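Field reference: sequence -> structure
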Amino acid sequence: MIRLLTLLAKVISVISQLFSIGSGGTWPGEIALIIYPQILKYYLSRVQKGIIIIAGTNGKTTTSKMIQKIITDSYNGNSTKIVHNDSGANLLNGIVSAFIQQSDYIGNITVDFAILEVDESTLPLLLDYCKNKKLAIVLLNLFRDQLDRYGEVDTIATKWNNTLTEIPQGILILNA
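Structure field:
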């Protein structure tokens, strides 16, 4: 299933770019999640050293790029394999697409770290896939942003709190 789905997703990415209907950064993941909702669980299981999740209203890209630089430099660039959804696609479909882009055409992928920029409302969904993983979570600021989609800041903070209490282990870094 993974092999066929990865091949299909890569073809969708190429078609999306070829016909200028997108960058190929979300549709491959969207289709993959529709066909096989557990594909993210498969990809996260391929991460060897740790998953670093960055969530918040502002600062995700800057923070994730700094983390990527720190990791790369600390390993002296010696073939450290990192999946990073640095295209700005920070919903589950963008995260899956980042893994698909890094995998070969039949879904084989082994990476050292996953650095995942995550939309505020997506954090609880992603953490459901990350239980019992080597995990570091960086929580940045929350502002009244996209109130039509998320409601008040307190709503998101409550969802974060409820989800974080279910994570058995990991490192939590807060920017208050």
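Note: The mean pLDDT is 88.
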